[in-house]
Specification:
- With 78 residues, the chain is of the alpha+beta class.
- It contains four helices and four strands; from the N terminus they run E-H-E-H-H-E-E-H.
- It has helices at residues 11-16, 29-40, 43-52, 66-77, and strands at residues 5-8, 21-24, 60-61, 64-65.
- It starts with a strand and ends with a helix.
Length: 78
């Protein structure tokens, strides 16, 4: 994938960050997370701070839950 991807944070995490939208050239969720940290310098700290408060997240890709996408890939490979 050579195109940039729109990434938007919502809720508590969006409020903690100085910016809640990014357009990054990434291939997967892991690269997106690293890209946000590289550009903000405080993303990891906010994730850790929120984890201590038991705050959880959902990752959506094109409006669908990331875990649903993983499950569908697994089912289709059988």
């Amino acid at each position: 994938m050579n195109n940039k991807v729109d990434i938007t944070l919502h809720g508590v995490l969006a409020k903690q960050m100085t910016q809640n939208k990014w357009k990054l050239k990434v291939k997967n969720v892991s690269e997106a997370i690293r890209g946000i940290e590289s550009n903000s310098g405080k993303f990891y700290n906010n994730l850790l701070k929120n984890d201590r408060k038991h705050i959880k997240y959902r990752i959506l890709i094109n409006g669908r839950d990331f875990m649903w996408i993983i499950m569908m890939i697994y089912v289709n490979q059988k």
